[in-house]
Amino acid sequence: MKKKLFAILLSIVMVAGLLPATALAAEPTVYDIWVDGVQVTSENKDNLFSGTVSYDPTTHTLFLNNATLDNDTMSDYGIKTTIPSTLKIRLTGTNSITRTDPGGGVGIYLNYSNSVEITGDGTLVINVIGENYDGISTGADVKISDKARVIINSEGGLGITGRMVKIDGATVDSTGLYAGIDAHWLKIINGADVTLKATQDGRNGAYIWKDQEGNGGDIELAASKVKATSYYPGLFAAGNLTVDGGQVSCTSTADGALWARGNILIKGGAKVTTDGKYPMGGNGTFTVEEAEIDAKNTNENNIPAIFDESVPVIADGYHLNYAKAVDSEGTEIDLLSSGTQYFALYKNVHFITKAVHPVSFVVTPDGLTNVVVKVNGQEVTGSVSLEAGTYPVEVTADNCKAYTDNITITADAATHTQTIAMTYLPADYTKVDAAIDKANALNKDEYKDFTAVEAAVNAVVRDKNITEQSEVDAMEKAIEDAIAALQYKDADYTKVDAAIAKANALNKDNYKDFTGVEAAVKAVVRGKNITEQTEVEAMAKAIEDAIAALQYKDADYTKVDAAIAKANALKKDDYKDFSGVETAVKAVVRGKNITEQSEVDKMAKAIEDAIAALEKKPASTKPGTSDKSPQTGDTSNLALWISLLLASGGATLATTVASRKKKYNR
What is the pLDDT of residues 325-344, one digit of tens each? Predict the structure, then answer.
């Protein structure tokens, strides 16, 4: 069975191999797209017109790479498609589509339901010569984006026509007999550069209209450069016109340069310039946020530049930054200073509006009093409306340093609340410094314990602010209290005590008057401190001076006088030798004081001893004589004995005088 099945399959293969090759060949696929009269197929899609044109059916993308589409002058269309999808055209290099008489035709034509997107970084130039032929025509949408550059000149028709025309970041220069662009909606955004022009009288550079259901009619221009020139308004919107940033220049050679049947909104810092023979404006509201508008009327008649039924209204949150006008006589008027801001009165009105932001100020720390905020020198209460920019700000408050700085306001809401951090004034350390100086001026060696003062000084903390003044005052008080609590060291009474001991060692009975010493001792005041040391020294000196001034009492000469009296009572002739007594008497020295009493007593004793040593002469043997000496009968030596006696007496007297003199000269 297996062998039979194998034989059948082998037979089939052999038969198939004998069939003509043409019998298995597939027919080429054709696509509903024509380029310069040539329909694109699966066979030619990769290499049309010497490789300058190719087509990717999976993405519906037509690639133009330095393509020139002008060979088939009899074709009605440069590019035509009826594919049920959006046709994408990607440009590389410089490309062109030219349709001329006698056949003419549309540059790019799409079925009513088809859209076209043109992208890439190349250029496409479309020249269409022939009545009622358009540059790009579709009943759906036209989008030109990326870095594509499209230049259209339609001498007998419309530059671009479609439902929605969107130019996103691309460069488009479209000139048509009837309009540069004719569509239900027009959107030009993201830095696009667009020039629109209509060459026939009674036409618009861009004519954006509503359909029968009232849809469409709106123009939206955002962050792009747009220039429109025509007989009637360069830009005409049957609906609303919005300009958000960028630059827009509109010119009308016979009418208002810009017109909208709906509302006009200009914002985002857009700069709009109009030049017409009649007022620009519209039938709805005309609202201006942040923008610059320079509207001119070049009509020789006195006609305002702005329609008086759609006078621009400055939106909330914006204000006039600049506003000047020129009246019919050519006089320039400053609308800001004049207060006359009804823009629809003048042939030329140039005004600039800026966004103003409600800026509020939060001043910290909490609880400050008498806070004053000034912006640009003007006092602010609550909030202030400011344009974006940089402003000088001054803030003052009680007990704070004055604040001066610049603030920068932008559209960012974060800048609309300005927090000002005030710095408190420094606390007053004047009293603290004075207390420290007072402490430093003290000689700590004079006090029993100076550590409390040093601790109070070391405890001082600097950089306190005025709200902490009580703490600073407490520091000063701590120092002052420590100083007040200081106790001086005791004065040194060593000399006083020595002087008193010296006085106490004296026998006051030896002195004539001891009261001076006693008074000086009694005058001593104890408890003096070291700062009163001089007083203590004075006490010691007073005692010493009193002691030095003492005078001894006179010695007692009573015994001396008694002895002298006793001697005087004797009859010296009764004695053998009275000279000893006389010598003792003569030896008496007067003027001795009580401390020399022993000497005085010796004098008395010397006299007494001399008296006691007297020997009386013997009784005489002859009547009338008391001389008991034996008579020798020899008188030859009498004169000699008398001389010796006198010499002995003189010597004794001299000795006595000399002795008394030495004693008195001590």
Answer: 998 888 899 988 876 568 88
